[in-house]
Amino acid sequence: MKKCNNLNTRKTLEIAFNSRCMKENSAILEELVELRQQKCDLLGFDTHASFVLDMRMAKTVVAVSTFLEDLAKKLNPLKDDEMKLFLQYKKEECKKLGYDFDNKINMWDMRYYTTMVEERKYSVDQSKLQEYFPMEVVTTGLLGIYQELLGLKFEEISKPHVWNDDVQLFNVKDIKSNKLIGYFYLDLFPREGKFGHAACFGLQPGCLLSDGSRQVAVAAMVANFTKPTADKPSLLMHDEVETFFHEFGHVMHQLCATSDFAMFAGTSVERDFVEAPSQMLENWCWEEEPLRRMSKHYKDGSPIPNDMLEKLIKSRKANAGVFNLRQILLGTFDQTIHTSKKADTAKVFSEISQKILGIAATPNTNMSASFGHLADGYDAQYYGYLWSEVFSMDMFYSRFKKEGIMSSKVGKAYRDYILAPGGSIDASEMLKNFLGREPNNEAFLKSKGLQAKV
């Protein structure tokens, strides 16, 4: 879909992809909507979304809908400009390849033209860039940045008792007191039977024990980066560097929390805030100083060329309007069906897609029939990805970007006010303590290319 210039093939593939198990799964999802509503009726809640949000940072259906509608309104100008460029590229290509130009962007065009924009407008050669991110250099740089920011010291334990020879074990100490905080494992390479994604797993919560002593936290970061070979080290794509930084942020959340009770340990915060601390740390993968610390060419040790680095950093804003409005579409669909007693999911999805993206769903498809989040614990909570990103950008731009992205002073405040409480206080209070004010979405909008205050 990203590279196929035959629009008929793209259409055929899009229909096939978004009609997978459509008949069976649409019925299951629509039954889930009804059963969730029945449960809420028994528990005294108006809707399933109201029930779920009662224990989330957002608290209410109105807060979520206001959040999504406000963001959509502010991101629409970006989307409109991006769509004009897509149409320009499509018109040129239809003329070149002999297709009739229909003067619109369809669902099967989206991935193709977003990719074209990234390649033409930003010219980032990902395969060439990858040569500057050997695993050993990235790991050393990343661990150094986290230690400097958070006032920690990591020590690798030699010959640890681990489940595979590739796994490394480190202890973590506070740099000032030399007090042991906990341990983390790095399990970074694929093998048969291993969990197939990147994630942080809390293995032991940090908490007080019955005798008054403190149990230290233990966590493991698991990933599946390319293994080194005899003639080439493991080389990471830039998005894998970002994934590494993100998941290791969860590791630090697990270890730096100082709550008394295990139930509030580490990442045991509201579900719609849990990603914010790690999303905030992804920003270091888009700033020149940390990128240079985490990179050098695997053959000669040379730094990333300035022009390549500049293009990479600029590319972060590519297609930001379309991408984020699609996230708003998915979050709005999730909220809509979970504030209803019944739902015709295909019809609801198409109507909301037309309203938010300006593109109706392709006939004879139902993307929601393969929208796994809605049956896998994210029901009425998909908005949380954007919700937490708004706060992550506010934290980064308002403190680190202003006072220094490698500022140990701001890093200590981040550790004390965001990581240390775990889930023992509300996320809204943590944010106010760190920011010194109520959070807002101005930094998020700026990060997407909307420079003026909105």
Walk me through this protein's architecture:
By secondary structure, this protein is α+β, with helices and mostly antiparallel strands. β5 and β6 form a beta hairpin. The mean pLDDT is 96. The chain has a five-stranded mixed beta sheet with strand order 1-2-3-7-4, with helices on one face. The protein starts with 6 loop residues before the first helix and ends in a 7-residue tail after the last helix. The chain is built from 17 helices and seven strands.
Strand content: 5-15%
> What radius of gyration results from the CA coordinates?
23 Å
End-to-end separation: 35 Å
Structural class: alpha+beta
How would you characterize the largest beta sheet?
A: 5 strands, mixed
Cross-sheet strand order for the largest sheet: 1-2-3-7-4
Shape: globular
Work out the number of β strands: 7
Indicate the percent of residues in helices: 40-55%
Q: What is the tally of helical segments?
A: 17
Task: Summarize, please.
The chain is α+β, with helices and mostly antiparallel strands. Helix content is 50%, strand content 8%.
